[in-house]
Structure formats: C-alpha cells, structure tokens
Amino acid sequence: MSDHSNDKKIEHPQSSFDRPGDIVKDRRLSPEEKRGALNTGEQDAHQLLTASNEGMPGSEEGIAPQDDHRLGEVVRAKDKIGVKPQHKASH
C-alpha cells in the first residue's frame, strides 16, 4: 500500500527526482512503484522527444538541455531493476 508522497513520486517523477537512476535508489518505493515511476518517466521522455522532433517547444517545464538524454537514462534505470522499456510505434 503506497502513501500519498509515493503517489506523487510515481505520477510526477520529474518533480521528485533529479535523475531516473534516483528512482531506483529510493528505498521508500516498492519495486512495483519504481516500475510505475519509470514508466511515467519514459512516457514523458517520449513526449518531449516527439515534441522536440516536431519543432514544438511545449511548456518551459521539463524542457532543458539535459532532458535530451532523459529517455536513455530511463531505459538504463529500468534495466537496473529488470524492466523492459516500453516500445512505441514510429509515426
């Protein structure tokens, strides 16, 4: 059973963690919660990458030079806990 602070970490990991690897290290999250947070992070990274590739800057939140490599970081963090990345079909 998760508490409300863990719910925020899962639903908005970018607000609670500097890097995806920090999710893996958080001892307060269960393995299932870590998977959920990393899945959310992966979806966010895909959306940022898609928007960037389409020339849409989006909101200022989450758009920074270091975000370019966020998807790779998420994939590596998921690998550390034995979770396969979600594959999205190309457009």
Topology:
Elements: H1 4-11, H2 13-16, H3 20-25, H4 31-53, H5 70-80
Helix pairs in contact: 1-4, 4-5
Report on the architecture of this protein.
By secondary structure, the protein is mainly α. It has one domain (4-80). It has five helices and no strands.
Any key phrases for this structure?
mainly alpha; 91 residues
Order of helices and strands: HHHHH
Distance between the termini: 38 Å
Classify the helix fraction into a percent range. 55-70%
For the secondary structure, the number of strands is 0
Binned strand content? under 5%
Radius of gyration: 13 Å
**Tally of discrete structural domains:** 1
Q: Which word captures the global form?
A: globular
Mean pLDDT: 80
- Overall SS class: mainly alpha
What ranges have pLDDT less than 50 throughout 5 or more consecutive residues?
A: 59-63
Q: What is the overall number of helices?
A: 5
Largest sheet, in brief, is: none
Brief characterization of the structure:
The protein is mostly helical and 91 residues long.
